[in-house]
Design goal:
alpha/beta; Rossmann fold; five-stranded parallel beta sheet
Length: 270
C-alpha cells in the first residue's frame, strides 16, 4: 500500500491588516489537517549564517501596502508565483484578487500552485500558467456546491468561521443578522453547515437552529455561546448543553471561538 506524503506550500506574505493576517493564519493552521497544507515563509537566519537556499513558492502581496512597490520592481525567482490583492498589479502577477478578500478563492489559488509545481516537474500534464476559472462545470453532473450559513455572528467570528469553512472545502458562505433574512435564505438554499450565535438578542437563534436542522437533516448544525465556554458557571453550561441537544444542534462551542475547538467541531464536514 502506497502512503501519500503530506505536501506543504510555503507562502510569503507582504502587507495586509491585522484582521486579514489573523484570517490568513487561521487558514494556515486549519490546513495542517489536509494532505496539502500551507505555512508562512519566515526565512529567519542566525547572525553570520547563510540565507536559506529555498524561496517561498508563492508570494501573497497586499497591493495597497508600501512594501508592494518592491514586488513591481523585482522579478520572481524561478517557479515562484505572485498572488496580488488590490489595485495596481504588475504584469507578472499570476493571480489578482479584489477586496474584500474571499478566502475560498485564496485557498483555491494556493491549491493551484501545487498543481503548477507538479506540471513544472513533468508529473502532471496541466496548464495552470495563467488565471482560469476554478469552478468550470464538468460535462458530467457536478456535485452541488457546498454552502454554509452564518447567523448573528460578529466580525471576528465571521472571519474565523470563513477561514475554517474554506479549509473544509465549503466555498459558498452566507452571513445574516436577522430572523427574516435567515428564514428567506433557508427557504432558497440547501446547506451543509449552519452556525448560530445563541447569545444574539436581536434574533431567535434557537428557533432558527431548530428550523435549519429540520430542513437540512444531514448538515452540521453548530451553536456558539459564551455560556458554553470554560468560564461560564456550571449550571449555565449544563442548561445550554441540554437546550442544544433538544434543539438538534450537533456541535456547541464556547465564545470567544478557539481554533482547536473549531477544528474539532467542523470535522463532520470532511
Amino acid at each position: 500500500m502506497t502512503v501519500m506524503q503530506k505536501q506543504r506550500i510555503f507562502v510569503g506574505v507582504v502587507g495586509f491588516s491585522d484582521v486579514e493576517r489573523h484570517a490568513l493564519n487561521t487558514v494556515f493552521r486549519l490546513s495542517e489537517t489536509r494532505e496539502l497544507s500551507y505555512a508562512p515563509w519566515v526565512p529567519l537566519v542566525a547572525p553570520g549564517a547563510k540565507p536559506p537556499a529555498m524561496n517561498a513558492e508563492v508570494m501573497l502581496v497586499d497591493g495597497e501596502s508600501a512594501e508592494a512597490v518592491l514586488s513591481h520592481a523585482k522579478g520572481l525567482p524561478t517557479g515562484q508565483r505572485l498572488i496580488w490583492v488590490g489595485p495596481g498589479a504588475p504584469a507578472h502577477a499570476w493571480r489578482v484578487l479584489d477586496r474584500p478578500i474571499q478566502w475560498a478563492s485564496v485557498l483555491n489559488d494556493l491549491d493551484a500552485v501545487y498543481a503548477a509545481r507538479q506540471a513544472d516537474s513533468g508529473l502532471l500534464d496541466l496548464d495552470v500558467t495563467r488565471p482560469v476559472p476554478l469552478d468550470l462545470e464538468l460535462e458530467s453532473s457536478p456535485e452541488p456546491v457546498r454552502r454554509a450559513l452564518l447567523v448573528g455572528l460578529n466580525g471576528q467570528e465571521r472571519l474565523t468561521l470563513r477561514a475554517g469553512l474554506t479549509a473544509m472545502a465549503v466555498p459558498e458562505i452566507d452571513e445574516v443578522d436577522s430572523t427574516e433574512a435567515t428564514m428567506n435564505l433557508m427557504r432558497r438554499h440547501p446547506y451543509c453547515c449552519g452556525v448560530f450565535n445563541l447569545d444574539n438578542p436581536h434574533l431567535d437563534a434557537w428557533s432558527l437552529a431548530r428550523y435549519f436542522g429540520q430542513g437540512n437533516p444531514q448538515a452540521l448544525n453548530m451553536g456558539i455561546s459564551e455560556h458554553a465556554g470554560p468560564l461560564a458557571a456550571w449550571w449555565r453550561r449544563r442548561r445550554v448543553v441540554r437546550d442544544a441537544q433538544r434543539t438538534g444542534i450537533h456541535a456547541l462551542l464556547g465564545r470567544p471561538l478557539q481554533t482547536t475547538d473549531l477544528m474539532q467541531g467542523l470535522e463532520r464536514l470532511r
